[in-house]
Request: fold
Amino acid sequence: MSTAYIPGKTKLPANWAARQTADGRWYFIDHVNKKTQWDLPVPEKYEVFKEGDALPPNWEARKAVDGRWYFVNHVTKTTQWNLPQRAPVSTSQSTVKANFVETMFTTTSSTSSDDDDDDD
Reply:
């Protein structure tokens, strides 16, 4: 695919740069993933993190000295440049949550009834 890059006018995603070869062909550098490509990167394809965005549990976002966001996993004690993905909730997790809520409601209802009996 031929790129239609116009220096100073074509907006690149954050942390991307454009360079030109000696023969005038443009290529693009992804500084986060340390890769290059001939095709113009499309900003919509890349997830962007904004301060205050929700992260999966046990993750934290920090800003590097150069302004790039990186992500800390406090469970595995690792870091990464890519935005962490939320894991889908499994059926067993949903069932546990539902059972917990049901148990809490049942316990609360029973306790309320017992308290009413004591007042009589």
